[in-house]
Amino acid sequence: MIRFNNDYSRGAHPAILKALADTNDTSYNGYGIDPWCEKAAAEIQKTVGRPDADVHFVIGGTQANFTAIAACLRAYQSVISPVTGHIHAHETGAVEHGGHKILTLPAENGKLSAAQIAAVAEEYRVSPIQEHITQPKMVYISFPTEYGTVYSLRELTDIRAVCDEYGLYLFIDGARLGYGLAAAGGDVTIQDIARLADIFYIGGTKCGALFGEAIVILNPELKPNFRSFIKQNGAMLAKGWLLGLQFYTLFHDGLYFDITRRAVEMAMDLKAAFTAKGIPSYMDSPTNQQFFILTKRQLAALEEKYVFEPDHPVDGDHDCVRFCVSWSTLPEEVEALKADVAAL
Amino acid sequence: MIRFNNDYSRGAHPAILKALADTNDTSYNGYGIDPWCEKAAAEIQKTVGRPDADVHFVIGGTQANFTAIAACLRAYQSVISPVTGHIHAHETGAVEHGGHKILTLPAENGKLSAAQIAAVAEEYRVSPIQEHITQPKMVYISFPTEYGTVYSLRELTDIRAVCDEYGLYLFIDGARLGYGLAAAGGDVTIQDIARLADIFYIGGTKCGALFGEAIVILNPELKPNFRSFIKQNGAMLAKGWLLGLQFYTLFHDGLYFDITRRAVEMAMDLKAAFTAKGIPSYMDSPTNQQFFILTKRQLAALEEKYVFEPDHPVDGDHDCVRFCVSWSTLPEEVEALKADVAAL
Amino acid sequence: MIRFNNDYSRGAHPAILKALADTNDTSYNGYGIDPWCEKAAAEIQKTVGRPDADVHFVIGGTQANFTAIAACLRAYQSVISPVTGHIHAHETGAVEHGGHKILTLPAENGKLSAAQIAAVAEEYRVSPIQEHITQPKMVYISFPTEYGTVYSLRELTDIRAVCDEYGLYLFIDGARLGYGLAAAGGDVTIQDIARLADIFYIGGTKCGALFGEAIVILNPELKPNFRSFIKQNGAMLAKGWLLGLQFYTLFHDGLYFDITRRAVEMAMDLKAAFTAKGIPSYMDSPTNQQFFILTKRQLAALEEKYVFEPDHPVDGDHDCVRFCVSWSTLPEEVEALKADVAAL
Amino acid sequence: MIRFNNDYSRGAHPAILKALADTNDTSYNGYGIDPWCEKAAAEIQKTVGRPDADVHFVIGGTQANFTAIAACLRAYQSVISPVTGHIHAHETGAVEHGGHKILTLPAENGKLSAAQIAAVAEEYRVSPIQEHITQPKMVYISFPTEYGTVYSLRELTDIRAVCDEYGLYLFIDGARLGYGLAAAGGDVTIQDIARLADIFYIGGTKCGALFGEAIVILNPELKPNFRSFIKQNGAMLAKGWLLGLQFYTLFHDGLYFDITRRAVEMAMDLKAAFTAKGIPSYMDSPTNQQFFILTKRQLAALEEKYVFEPDHPVDGDHDCVRFCVSWSTLPEEVEALKADVAAL
Q: pLDDT digit string (tens) for A193-208?
């Protein structure tokens, strides 16, 4: 079976395994106070164009999300999220377990608009019963979204303007950031992300690392005591250098961008094959996740050889499914699938 | 500099790195539903003599602690811990952040006694104001303790009896379990642990793994929906097979026990060298952590070549410090330190 | 100014003030362990036809809601609520602060349907990723709803059937229960409520008491240690007999039902006056809360003499507003308003 | 039976009942936005000598405590309390349920010393592992303490100095403030309390009100959005004017101070009677709570006619018990008890 079911189904890029092997006998301080974390942070600061950024490494995405939210919000404050946002849809209520309400909004193409956010913030601002409702204080969006779509620079800039107007923090979940930055037709750079967000993270788990996410804090209000939040939320790795080492490996020579760009290219290639066959996309994703609407027969045929993920039933004869290409996808895997799609 | 400051200062046992490399190109399902987790769980069930045990793999110790506590307790229930317990002393209030009170008791040699536990449980049982205080429902102990000491089988059996009498869960933090089971003069086996605890975990991070802890649930009441607690608490690794693979490697042929036993042997050797020099131990630890009371002059001399950890000041001229031997300590490192101690 | 803005704008029914004065010099045990709480509980058990019910008195509605939810749910479980539900819309995220997700559903006439609930429960049941989402375990509805509407016996019975099928608890917020039971054309009795709910509460604050709500627990699973949850959530009144005394006064001779029925009769009278004038209702409420859609001119005219509450703007020239009749509304207040409406 | 078991065993001072009756037919806005709350706040500002103070009214003490703590602390911060503190000993873990660790210290005469607090704060300040422990950020003390003792002005001033040095908030639980200010030999005024604390509350429940506590915030950092915390924590009374009305009644002409002073005078009288009989006090309390060490025989004799509270067993033949005098204690009740003590 060939797996397209997700982008975290294989270990790590060989360069990372090599780095782990090369340093395995060296001993380090624990908890992220080590030369690799320091070097990785410096590479990331340089890459995002913000030498003033604080960079912290945590193990996974759910942790990154609830830790960042805990660190940014007071108890009576809430976070605005599209209804499709990962924090709302796939984290077992971790944000609420941490005490915060998520204000969900309908998502178009997996995205929020500046106007939607402004409406919620304005509703609170003019509310005569402010103390009976939570104060929206943070906007959570994913880049790319859970459906593979990306915000344009214009859209992000408009969201930033609303955040400035209403005093909201902008938090960008970049679990798949590399793929989003490589989006076909996209115009957002990692420097834009760092310029527009108050806090965001760079996903490693789905982009070539064994595991790990790099949280980047731009807003000085959010920097103090962040390590206390990390530890309290169980997101501090004892052997912290393992995270620094991986991010240094991914960022010091651009590897992160190379491998995610290559994956997006293959995904576009794959999409073309489905499209050529007349198979519709659920959303027009320019990144590594592709959602297709298959007939039951097509689905059954492809399931014989490929692993992919059900998303939702469409009607009695059609299902929406997800195919993920990743940093670890082999060209021959894509070629095989293309051929089988053509033969459907 | 030679590091004795902790037992998580190097990567992983070579067998684990090799296993990671060998499987790096294989693709798996995520979130711990994979053949390696299954195989590792089977090895652990066999090793602990409990085929009925549920086994879950999480990333680190703090997570293991607060996730287990969250899964076992209702909001009005509390956990009894020695004042030196890791959950009380080193986890940034993570248990309280999760909503639970820790009832701390004085620790003798880092340990609780059955009598102490019974006293707290009895105090609640006879309280005329039960609803104004929390219900002690769990006992948290570490094996070995944070000071390297271990409970005898008699002590553990007595604690179990009190837990049975009062309906308390016994949770054993085994972050350093391997070292505890290899304790000089110890009489507790891993099968005893599994027979006496309701839930415990087997530490990987400090015992040869890159990272990871295996939670073992014996009490059927505590099994349902445990994976929901893991996910909600951010302790579920996307590439879950990395944990299963490591624990399979450590347990299928006894490697876990070999490397921790060897570490304890070296620690005993080291303790003998300090003792021979007339340097007192703070506690008489039979495991890999050794606490010595050094004069300022001795401390300064050893600091030139070795990294070790301050524990607490004793008086104007003496400090208590910790030396850790671990699965990764080299015989020549111990020999060097022994020679330097002898030369003090 | 005459107030129709809410149903908690005056003190208490004279019988309650008299009871307070009559007993002011008597001394009691604290925290709800007293003869009045006992007698009140007995009256309520008799009234609802469930001698096995546990009855607890708390101070207010928000407390009643989050305490009940805390007592019923484990951390990974969530509560289904209409988007208009009080716990979602007016409690500053108290439920989330307590750690639980609210699964909101669109509300028709302020109500949920059995089919909607079944759909959410079924989605969870068949989910291949159960541990990544919360488990819906409780249904929260209000009787009457926040818009004054009521469920029919058929609707409640259907909801109960879904709860039984999926193992959900049914929690009925009865902050205005008296008004709901007196609904024009309604067919639900308090015995029905007690037969169909697992837990519900009888509102005192809005129905003649100075303050206080009586939580009634029918499901034996939910009874143990409820007083611990009450105390932990700050809902236990030191002078608990004040609550018992009030509920005894309201229930021992049917006063509760008399005063709320009278209020609903006046509300129907009032509605008829608006309707006769051609002023539309926002929803067709058969209880004490009436929502009318006024023109700006009508609104301005009525604001000169009456206090009522804005609900939401409808369009440039119309606003939806709420008029509340209550146990304390005087017939002449209603007559005055009717005359002024007729004169608009 | 004559009750000395607590200071909340009777309703309210007659002036309060009268005020409730006089205003029962007036209608008000809800949630504490009303003329009585405004007037009461003004009286309190004047009384405490701080026109800049924010004053909020909540229902009870546990609520006041956990709401204040929630409003003052971030998740990684903790509160220092004597081990006898109400938040630690009598609130079912409410503070931990809200997510915060309590750092308990041994109490001498129910009190903390400035030196103890400084030691904890200094330990954190110099800790090399700050992110692994909670940051002490608030000091919680009671005035008077749970054992009836009071701090001297010197002691409070010293504690304030330590709070200033380490950036700690001083929170004073004044559930029995009136009795503390009337302490025999005490030298602390309510103006001192308001000058030294960052936030404190004035107890009504135990000092003549039906119920209610007035939270007074001095530190401007703690003022914003406090009403949101009140609502979220279930401490906002719908009929908020009931609280304002009571506090206005107690403060506009000094009634609060008169009735608590009278109670303390009776308590001193009572203590003299026990002392004259050779019955030792457990602690030398200058306020309304008196703890005596009775023989079993004395206890049995007094139990025939009086209700009082067991505190703790002392030895096989002695028990420590509490007698409370209060605003509602009648002179003849004290005289009867004195006579019976003399006759023991």
A: 999 999 999 999 999 9
**Is the alpha carbon torsion for C184, C188, C191, C193 positive or negative?**
negative
Residue pLDDT, tens place only, A79-104 = 999 999 999 999 999 999 999 999 99
Subunits next to D (3 or more Cβ pairs <8 Å) are A, B, C
The better pLDDT of the pair C204, D1 is held by C204
The domain locations on chain A are 2-7+256-342, 14-254
- The pLDDT value recorded for residue A253 is 97
Chain B residues with a Cβ under 8 Å from any Cβ in chain C: 31, 70, 74-76, 99, 130-132, 134-135, 225, 227-232, 236
Q: Do D96 and B91 touch (CB under 8 A)?
A: no
pTM: 0.97
User: DSSP characters for B94-157?
Assistant: HHHHTT--EEEE--BTTB--HHHHHHHHHHHHT-TTGGGSPEEEEEEEESS-TTS----HHHHH
State the pLDDT at residue B193.
Answer: 98
Of all residues in chain C, what percent carry a pLDDT higher than 90? 99
The whole-angstrom distance between B304's CA and the closest CA on chain A is 17
Joined together, the tokens standing for residue D230 give 């009140």
Q: To the nearest whole angstrom, how far is the Cα of C139 from the nearest Cα of chain B?
A: 20
To which residue do tokens 């193990």 refer?
A59
Predicted local distance difference test score (pLDDT) of residue C198: 98
Are D99 and B100 inside 8 Å of each other by CB?
no
Give the torsion through C-alpha atoms of B271, B273, B276, B279, to 10 deg. -60
Chain D residues touching A58 at Cβ < 8 A = none
Given this model, what pLDDT does residue B300 score? 97
Instruction: Pick from A78, A88, A96, A312 the residue to mutate for testing the C interface (most C CBs within 10 Å).
Output: A96
Q: B17 pLDDT band (50/70/90 cuts)?
A: very high
Q: What ipTM was assigned to the predicted interfaces of this complex?
A: 0.96
Asked if D63's CB is within 8 angstroms of C228's CB, the reply is no
Strands C318-324 and C309-315 turn out to be antiparallel
Q: What is the CATH number of domain D14-255?
A: 3.40.640.10
CA distance D72 to chain A (A): 10
Kindly report whether the peptide bond that precedes residue D51 is cis, defined as omega within 30 degrees of 0.
Answer: no
Q: In angstroms, what separates the C-alpha of C92 from chain D's closest C-alpha?
A: 5
* Helix (H) / strand (E) containing B225: none
**Interchain contact, A231 vs B3, CB within 8 Å:** no
CB contact under 8 A, C25 and D11: yes
Which chain D residues have a beta carbon less than 8 Å from that of B96?
Answer: 78, 96, 99-102
Q: Which of D11, D60, D235 sits opposite C20 (nearest CB)?
A: D11
Tell me B197's DSSP state: -
**C-alpha to C-alpha distance for B223 and B305, rounded to whole angstroms:** 48
- At residue D129, the pLDDT reads 92
* Architecture field, domain A14-254: 3-Layer(aba) Sandwich (3.40)
**Partner residues linked to C77 by β-bridges:** C135
In chain B, what is the greatest distance between 2 CA atoms, to the nearest angstrom?
63
CA angle D247, D249, D252 (to 5 degrees): 95
Low-confidence ranges of chain D (pLDDT < 50): none
Summarize pLDDT for B292-327 with one digit per residue, the tens. Answer: 999 999 999 999 999 999 999 999 999 999 999 999
Q: Cβ separation of B132 and D76 shorter than 8 Å?
A: no
CB spacing of B230 vs C76 below 8 angstroms: no
pLDDT bucket at C56, cuts 50 / 70 / 90: very high
Looking at domain A2-7+256-342, does it have CATH number 3.30.365.10?
A: no
Q: D2-7+257-342: which CATH topology? A: Aspartate Aminotransferase, domain 1 (3.90.1150)
| H helix or E strand, kind and range, residue D305 | none
Band the pLDDT of A60: cuts 50, 70, 90.
very high
